[in-house]
């Protein structure tokens, strides 16, 4: 459930219909208006996770790198590869 | 696509698989909570790559699957009222109610619109002042802030023609219901990353502690899932039961505080019936008294007769992880995506549909 | 597509029911509009049908076009209707020759939109080298149509070298797609009410007949099967052939050509590009021996720069389409059930 | 027309958007419905078009059918669509052979109505001895169509004796109408919202090709011109020919075959039967020498019992149709402007 | 068809023509009041059969022709309001208003319905309680009872969503306006049979007397028209000026008393502007104060800006019998049925359209 | 204006929508519901003139015959016929 994908904030408008903060978020070059009121600290250039038109969190770049390096921090997984069919 | 493609890297996937095969000694049953995770496991063909000792079972985390027949009937009833525009996410349209579904109701004349966001439903209400716009607000904790926002926005715009028909459900009570089942075989959970992006991690510690079960908050891409499985298996092999966060790039311990405030502004916790599972106390959200005029059930005085679930569908057992879809006698014959008996066959996130659509070559004998 | 050709002068700025009544308004619309723009020696007979000599093996195909909006990023329903039937004929191994053209207009359609469509039809027919030889115009009441529907039917002459039939498909044959998938469907989706997004993606609608003729000239009956994967996407075409041949169809996700923006839109809406509609591409199943040369010729053609071999026919998993995922896993690609609905939640 | 043929079992009792999506529902609808009912050797190729050998002079015609209600007194849109294109081909002097069939269905159409239409199509095609060889099915949203539109396009072989062209019309040629005028249009009008009346009039939709073939066999190129006066009625056909030939067309009101009830309805609604749509009749312009024999053969045919010579071609009033009234006066019969609106007041 | 075909008998027609030719000595100009009579004269080709001394001119008796631009604009305006269904007789749809007509407004989205009877509009109002149904109530005295009945019926059914937009005109004031014109050349009138079926003959005696002009109440079939012409010419040749009743099978001296009562229940006499002619005092009907809620003008508070008639159209002169259609410089070129400049080119009853459509071979040189 | 044609009353129902008298009237075999409240004395078999769904008068059979016999009552019109082209 809860399809949410990361997109990059391209621009931020002050208000959503005079009520909420909105911005344009790019996903692979396509752009969608997204409600940003749940991520008030997000700035242009940040990646946000967007679900049904609402940004629900800012992607933490540091943590993202750590996930990708997770295995390297495990001593045992250096050489061999699992043979995939 | 940044923050997406990296987690689909075949080399990285192979390394994780190697590590997973290397460390897996015991025989472990893991449940991924979220339908999106099921979708990704099946679509990427990951299930066949796992060590033989690991069995994945598919949790109840698909709002399409757990919305009860009676609520679908409510949505259909509202859609059929003259002057009502019923708006919904796309995949709710095929879910069977007691006698029909929204897609067929639409074909017969009901005004049903597919929208990307509840906020667009508010715009529709603005543009159609002589119509009643109802948003079919299904979802887990992830979707609750957006649905709540739509009510707040309608309120600020002073709209009298917008309301939401809720079928909001919560993950932790469902996990406990599963764990309390006599026949439960689940050894560890992959918790739903996007739910936790909103809610944070706090609610999971008591569960891990009480049921002595590892819980790994996990993302949705192949690398996320494999890392999550690896973390869970490591705990199991080591006899641990902690709450771990694989999806730290999107989830932090306290969650999104503003989002939680938005939820609590509009919703309060209520009992909720889950399709296939039955009533779970305190497992859902309903619109608070303060926003009652945005509650479609009150606004339209809904009071439809009770409808029993279809007994032929074993979706309860499937969503609790007691059975696999192909163990259902109806799977692939009486029950197919084009005419689903139960909700898990509807959305491609539903466990049964996921198996049917994306089943790997090994399991395809069952489809 | 905007053109500089001036709009004929009409007394009406929209089409009314009277334009479909068969009387003077119909007559004028046809005389000053349709015939003037599309006229050729065969159409101008002004009979209820066209006559011409024909001989050989012919192909005959029909399609109705109901796209909404009818003017969309990258084109309009008019060129789509010409290209669609031209391509269906080409997929039969035929050289398209004659088209019929039938309009169902909802009253209120603006004259200038209608003429924009007519001019696109003219240009598309010119480019595809087909003649529009007979036609029909109906007008329906407001609320009984969707601005403009078009039917084209077409007649082509089967290429002498062609031998297109699913029965000729054998294990080992290579599956080729001529261009990026899902482009057209996503371009249309980007302007659908309730799902709109900003994109530079435009429909890739184009006539494929000259490309196909060139391939048939050289590879003849080494081309076993051709199909343009329109509605239902490439998954539907492959499933249909799998069902008909009872062979297995194995494809590799890594080899599927797809534009980045299209992928982004599919991620966002929860759509699977395998099921999204295409226009300007085709799927070919060819003898393994010629696959590389076939691909090379295609890559040198403006309609095939992104062409790729995406898989092959196999004796494994008969009747099923199986895709190797990016990470090396395998999954069955089934028939789509109904319309693909955006999967949001 | 009700038939005893059982409806195939479907999971849906109405057509939904999914049936047009190109996926499994479309596939099933076609497999279990359309192909099962209409199947023949050429249609069953399940390609995007049909292939067959053809040689000679061919005629090619298209029409979209948008009639409302689509099931009407005396028939339904299915047989209308088959007969209409069969007749258009026959009017070209051709022997109709192959039809394409394309549906635009509004979601919500009842499956049983759809199958009633399909069965009528089958029967009409059988009776006319034409094969339906290729087709298409689209589904549009509620409110974007009018239950069911059908396009048929057709290919026929020109009869070896035929030489149908308005340029061959000469002064002295006789104008013959094959049956009662305005029957179909009034049958439809009788069930139009806001104008309903009770009548036993039913549409006379029928295939005319066998009748025409019989006439061409015997009278060959003495038949100068054939046309079925559908939309716009006989006045529109005669005006079109008058405009094309710049000859005068003179008809006599006393000789016009028309049913009493049809006349009554026209009086009541203030309609002129000359402009009312027809289905099962045609207008022939023939050499004066053969007119009597032509009429005799027609009168002996079940489609021509009421046929009559209604006038002749003349050098007077070039480009105009003039009718002698019942009382002996003369009037110009002009083109109808738009739709004929009931003249009440 | 009984009471119809007898009056189309060619033998009888010939006898009448013979008699007419025999007795006609002078040069006489007759006006048939009613558009239906014009229609029949032209459609049957009667004009060319008349003695050269007899000239027929076509009167103003076509409601389509005399409804002013401003009223057409009112109808279009109402049709364009959301929630309004505008119902009309078919031939009003092509009449040009100041910038468009109802047919085009319909094509652009206005809800315009063609009905056979105002009573069906009442049924439509019953069936569509959430819509406002407006009937475009044009017509002469003949149509007034039916339009009035519709109001009475709506009132008895307690409908609050039905009203009529009137453009009712009366024959006698128009006859007087024509007779008072300086250039008038009319020697005799064929009065409109169906108007008299309602109103009877009484109102015509003072006119015949005052203007010393024969008035023959006449039917619509060829025999009726020829008999009516014959009776008028007989009077003229004899220097008489009586009111005579050719159409006695349908018209009696007092008219239809019940119908007149129905008219007076709902309508009162008012001034009325006639297209092409201008204002004629006391020449129309408007809804009475008692039924004001059924008066669309009051209900929708209509107050559209005044629009001048098209100066290029000489319809006033044509309807007064001062000019023939082919004497209009626009006839057949700038003004054609498919794009009429003036109303008489719209309805096939309009004098210009009647000439254009059915013109006999002699006059067809002008078309 | 005022297209009205004679039709024969085939049946009479008491009420129009519970309010008015209606009947079925035949025109050359086609039938239409017609409001009969303005011709209360009309009975089945009578011919009535119908305009926009309302019967506005009963056709007087005697007068109808007189119209057709009008010429015969004029002495002069016995033998000759006018030659129509
Ligand atoms: S296969 Fe169908 S019936 Fe069986 S559990 Fe799944 S949804 Fe229910
Ligand atoms: S011909 Fe046209 S412009 Fe001239 S008077 Fe008639 S309606 Fe008016
Ligand atoms: Mg086709
Ligand atoms: Mg096609
Ligand atoms: Mg195709
Ligand atoms: Mg046609
Ligand atoms: Mg494409
Ligand atoms: Mg045709
Ligand atoms: Mg036709
Ligand atoms: Mg025809
Ligand atoms: Mg098709
Ligand atoms: Mg007919």
Automatic annotation (TrEMBL), chains A, F:
Any GO MF annotation of the entry: carbon dioxide binding
Signal peptide: none
Entry's Gene Ontology BP terms: protein maturation
Any Pfam family matching the protein: HupF_HypC
Family per record: Belongs to the HupF/HypC family.
Name of the protein: Hydrogenase expression/formation protein HypC
UniProtKB/TrEMBL annotation, chains B, E:
Top-rank taxon: Bacteria
GO biological process: protein maturation
GO molecular function, one term: iron ion binding
Pfam families in UniProt: HypD
Keywords: Iron, Metal-binding
NCBIfam families attached to this UniProt entry: hypD
Homology family: Belongs to the HypD family.
Name of this chain's protein: Hydrogenase expression/formation protein HypD
Record organism: Flavisolibacter ginsengisoli DSM 18119
From TrEMBL, chains C, D:
Family: Belongs to the HypE family.
GO biological process: protein maturation
Ranges where the PurM-like N-terminal domain occurs: 55-158
Protein name: Hydrogenase expression/formation protein HypE
Pfam family, one: AIRS
Species in which this protein is naturally found: Flavisolibacter ginsengisoli DSM 18119
Domain PurM-like C-terminal stretches: 170-322
Gene3D superfamilies reported for this sequence: PurM-like C-terminal domain (3.90.650.10), PurM-like, N-terminal domain (3.30.1330.10)
Record-annotated membrane-spanning stretches: none
Family annotation (NCBIfam families): hypE
Domain of life: Bacteria
InterPro entries attached to this UniProt entry: HypE, PurM-like_C_dom, PurM-like_C_sf, PurM-like_N, PurM-like_N_sf
